[in-house]
């Protein structure tokens, strides 16, 4: 019987087996179909850095014209659900302690009087430091309101805010415009990582991996047959998220689709390599899933999705360059909002190609290493 | 016999009281009837075997006895307590060792024992005596600091037994304690159980091994959820008296003789025993046909004592026929050389540990070659090196002339492999599994279609094509696994504990095919824990502590164990004898 290192017949048989395994395995199916829908809903609607639907406590000791003006504006501010009026400093503290309000405004007795006297009115803002991020944003909103009141006090003075900020690419700072393109990468990352990390571990649990290793099939054939379904599913998911971004959320897509698609495929290929490495060293599917999360979560945190890569220590910045998601995020965010020129995309594309080559080669070595 | 004074709490007036009373128990899972109208009594001070093929309902009954399952109808009392109403009392009165005992693999032997003591509400520090006693009893004393995960199969079972004995139960329930345990460790387990029943404890030992059943004082024989027999095994065996025969020293022709014998209408069952063929006549049948066969083969026909296994097979309506439809279709194997598999100075080290030490042998074309040895003796490491799953540290292995290190692809396309648990793709249908194994061995076009159709027809899989392998009856599952590993018609077939956990009838069918293949010149390499399977082998290589300690025909190995006390040793006796004398030599040398 003639045997060669590569046979299309063997590859085809294994490819069909892999596709059927992914589609028929409830665990794999869940990995493929549930997270996209769930994450789409969770991230796009719930995970937002804007502050909304909060309560503010007001202890108005003044009851003069200007304090009335200030409270009225708070009342009509859209981010506040209720303005809770209290009668003592004590109550104010309690509301913050119990977490019922995020911030409290204490207006002193002489607030309107001072303003009438031509001095500046001072009010105290107490913020719940346990929710530091939302608290800071609330303070920023509150100072804008205070500044507006100030502008009314001195109508003919200069503009209260001397600087006018214009946000490029995302003029209204719509949070979703930023998060949905990033999600494309994260979602594709986890799907491809889980599908591949389960694939060898599943066979090992069944005992079929030994069966595969005693057959004349070669390691590259095993790697290719296990990569292709994950590559196809990951790319399809990425495309699904991109179209959801464009058609559902109306995010302007300004870059080159062809280049984005190429980067998506390369990105997933590099993730597939990582997943196969995890799978090659896992004895059970449980270990494989844990391994995928142990690698996937830090990768997302360090990729620049939540915090800028530039803020990290230098050593970690180097490490971040080895994470495929870092490069893909630059490309996908650039393609959506800022019409990134091909030259800039290529600058992030070649590292992806290098990483893909490295991880797939390592995966081959890992799988072959199982024969020791 | 070693005594274990305090372990069993002997109930007062144990003589007449039944330890367990089972009355009209029914249990079904959906449409599957696991137990049907079962009634039986189990007595104190006796070892009761719960015997039956896979899926007979043994585990279901065990779990009802321990109160883990509630029967759909009927009552069970254990030590006087109703298993449903007095569930808490059951846990105190009984010790249960499930098939895979819940040992914590990352805890040491001692930590596991302390944990189980504490779970039973015992103060581990105040029970130092009990611990010492249990460790002595199980001979685990030297290993208290070893992690449970690092113990051999036999030692794990002993630790499980120690934990189950922790609360001094009146009734001990052991669910297939002998599975995956080598004969030496098995003998240890028997010794312990014997000591416990002598103390007055009721012990229930469930098993699919019929030689184990024969050693029980009383058996409950289950099949498809029904009780077929209740009583001492000798009583059942006695019904078969005069129906068991052996064709002595048939030699090279024994496989052909077995096939002929099994195809006789008067024969209900037959197996190979070394160079001989053992047959059982149908009820009421005469030995004339058999006599004619032995005359024709020019061998002696001797009457032999019946075994429990004979009675069991007879009760189930006899074994399968002797002709392998599979082997009939295969063309005879042509090889360039007479040596199908060989290894020279084969050695495998994992760090400091040597798993296989300098093993050499040659296997002839068409030979059935067995690899036997205690757990951890290096049997499976050696086997894996021979089929290319492990790379040897030193030495070399050849399959049909190809060096496994260099020409892996060429060597691998000439071998078939069937693993324990029949590694099939559970997510794929039967048809897809067949397609896959044809494809992965590079079969294309017409050849591929023909081979698949041939396998479906030979193994009668036509009705199951769209089912998943897991939903198949055990026998069909085994046929499918065999079909997948033979799709490319390999001249060498590797079988790794192929019939572990398989009932005797399915096992016979399997060996019919294997015998047929061997007659066509296919070389068979097999590892097994079943001593009666070793009897099918032409030659057996016995491994102990990584070394080859014996290599000979089963009969010669048995002869080497002959002693004044044991004039006619079984394969199991030979196994224990060889391993123990190898151990003694090793101790003498150091």
Automatic annotation (TrEMBL), chain B:
Annotated GO MF terms: ATP binding; ATP hydrolysis activity
Annotated ABC transporter domain residues: 20-249, 341-570
Stored CDD domains: ABC_DR_subfamily_A
Superkingdom of the organism of origin: Bacteria
Keyword Disulfide bond: no
Entries under InterPro entries matching the protein: AAA+_ATPase, ABC_transporter-like_ATP-bd, ABC_transporter-like_CS, P-loop_NTPase
Keywords: ATP-binding, Nucleotide-binding
UniProt-listed Pfam families: ABC_tran
Record PANTHER family: ABC TRANSPORTER G FAMILY MEMBER 20 ISOFORM X1, ATP-BINDING CASSETTE, SUB-FAMILY H, MEMBER 1
Protein name (record): ABC-type efflux pump, duplicated ATPase component YbhF
Organism: Ectopseudomonas toyotomiensis
Higher taxonomy: Bacteria, Pseudomonadati, Pseudomonadota, Gammaproteobacteria, Pseudomonadales
């Amino acid at each position: 019987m003639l045997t060669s290192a590569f046979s299309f017949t063997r590859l085809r048989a294994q490819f069909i087996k892999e596709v059927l395994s992914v589609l028929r395995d409830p665990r794999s199916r869940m990995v493929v179909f549930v997270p996209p829908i769930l994450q789409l809903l969770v991230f796009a609607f719930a995970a937002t850095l804007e502050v909304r639907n909060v309560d503010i406590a007001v202890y108005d000791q003044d009851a003069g014209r200007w304090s009335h003006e200030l409270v009225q504006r708070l009342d009509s501010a859209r981010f506040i659900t209720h303005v809770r009026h209290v009668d003592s400093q004590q109550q104010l503290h309690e509301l913050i302690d119990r977490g019922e309000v995020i911030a409290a405004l204490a207006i002193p007795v002489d607030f309107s009087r001072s303003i009438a006297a031509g001095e500046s009115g001072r009010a105290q803002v107490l913020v719940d430091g346990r929710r530091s991020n939302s608290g800071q944003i609330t303070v920023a909103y509150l100072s804008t309101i205070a500044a507006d009141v100030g502008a009314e006090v001195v109508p003919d003075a200069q503009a209260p805010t001397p600087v006018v900020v214009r946000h490029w690419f995302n003029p209204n700072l719509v949070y979703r415009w930023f998060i949905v393109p990033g999600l494309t990468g994260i979602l594709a990352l986890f799907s491809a990582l889980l599908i591949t990390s389960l694939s060898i571990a599943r066979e090992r649990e069944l005992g079929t991996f030994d069966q595969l290793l005693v057959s004349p099939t070669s390691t590259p054939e095993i790697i290719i047959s296990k990569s292709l379904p994950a590559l196809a599913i990951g790319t399809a998911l990425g495309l699904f998220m991109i179209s959801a971004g464009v058609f559902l959320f109306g995010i302007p897509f300004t870059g080159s689709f062809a280049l984005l698609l190429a980067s998506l495929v390369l990105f997933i290929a590099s993730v597939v390599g990582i997943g196969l490495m995890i799978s090659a060293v896992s004895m059970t599917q449980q270990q494989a899933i844990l391994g995928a999360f142990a690698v996937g979560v830090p990768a997302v945190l360090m990729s620049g999705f939540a915090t800028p890569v530039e803020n990290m220590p230098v050593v970690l910045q180097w490490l971040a360059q080895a994470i495929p998601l870092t490069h893909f995020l630059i490309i996908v965010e650039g393609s959506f909002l800022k019409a990134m020129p091909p030259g800039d995309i290529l600058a992030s594309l070649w590292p992806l190609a290098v990483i893909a080559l490295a991880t797939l080669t390592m995966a081959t070595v890992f799988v072959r290493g199982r024969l020791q | 016999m070693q005594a274990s004074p305090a372990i069993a709490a002997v109930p007062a007036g144990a003589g007449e009281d039944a330890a367990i009373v089972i009355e009209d128990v029914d249990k079904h899972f959906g449409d599957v009837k696991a137990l049907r109208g079962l009634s039986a009594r189990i007595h104190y001070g006796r070892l009761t075997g719960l015997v039956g093929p896979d899926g007979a309902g043994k585990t279901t009954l065990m779990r009802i006895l321990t109160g883990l399952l509630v029967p759909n109808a009927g009552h069970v009392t254990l030590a006087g307590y109703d298993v449903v109403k007095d569930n808490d009392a059951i846990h105190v009165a009984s010790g249960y060792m499930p098939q895979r005992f819940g040992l914590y693999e990352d805890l040491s032997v001692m930590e596991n024992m302390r944990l189980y003591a504490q779970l039973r509400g015992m103060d581990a520090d105040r029970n130092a005596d009990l611990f010492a006693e249990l460790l002595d009893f199980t001979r685990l004393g030297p290993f208290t600091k070893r992690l449970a995960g690092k113990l051999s199969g036999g030692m794990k079972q002993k630790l499980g037994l120690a934990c189950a004995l922790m609360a001094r139960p009146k009734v001990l329930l052991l669910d297939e304690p002998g599975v995956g345990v080598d004969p030496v460790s098995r003998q240890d387990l028997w010794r312990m159980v014997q000591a416990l029943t002598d103390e007055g404890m009721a012990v229930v030992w469930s098993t699919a091994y019929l030689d184990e059943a024969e050693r029980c004082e009383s058996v409950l024989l289950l099949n498809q959820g029904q009780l077929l027999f209740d009583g001492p095994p000798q009583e059942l065996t006695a019904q078969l008296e005069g129906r068991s025969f052996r064709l002595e020293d048939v030699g090279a022709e024994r496989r052909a003789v077995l096939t002929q014998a099994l195809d006789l209408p008067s024969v209900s069952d037959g197996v190979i025993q070394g160079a001989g063929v053992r047959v059982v006549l149908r009820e009421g049948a005469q030995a004339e046909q058999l006599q004619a066969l032995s005359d024709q083969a020019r061998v002696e026909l001797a009457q032999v004592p019946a075994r429990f296994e004979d009675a069991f097979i007879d009760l189930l309506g006899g074994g399968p026929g002797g002709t392998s439809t599979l082997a009939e279709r295969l063309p005879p194997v042509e090889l360039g050389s007479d040596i199908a598999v060989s290894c020279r100075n084969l050695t495998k080290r994992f760090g400091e540990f040597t798993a296989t030490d300098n093993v050499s042998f040659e296997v002839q074309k068409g030979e059935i070659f067995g690899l036997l040895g205690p757990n951890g003796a290096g049997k499976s490491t050696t086997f894996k090196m021979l089929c290319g799953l492990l790379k040897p540290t030193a030495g070399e292995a050849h399959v049909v002339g190809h060096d496994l290190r260099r020409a892996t692809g060429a060597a691998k396309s000439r071998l078939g492999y069937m693993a324990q648990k029949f590694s099939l793709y559970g997510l794929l249908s039967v048809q897809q599994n067949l397609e896959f194994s044809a494809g992965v061995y590079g079969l294309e076009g017409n050849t591929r279609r023909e081979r698949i159709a041939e396998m479906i027809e030979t193994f009668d899989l036509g009705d199951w094509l769209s089912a998943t392998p897991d939903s198949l009856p055990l026998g069909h599952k085994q046929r499918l696994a065999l079909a997948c590993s033979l799709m490319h018609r390999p001249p060498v077939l590797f079988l790794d504990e192929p019939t572990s956990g398989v009932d005797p009838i399915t096992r016979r069918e399997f060996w019919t095919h294997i015998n047929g293949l061997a007659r066509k010149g296919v070389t068979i390499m097999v590892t097994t824990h079943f001593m009666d399977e070793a009897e099918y082998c032409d030659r057996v290589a016995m491994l102990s502590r990584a070394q080859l300690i014996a290599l000979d025909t089963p009969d010669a190995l048995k002869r080497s164990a002959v002693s004044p006390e044991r004039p006619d040793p079984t394969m199991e006796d030979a196994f224990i004898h060889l391993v123990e004398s190898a151990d003694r030599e090793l101790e003498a040398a150091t």
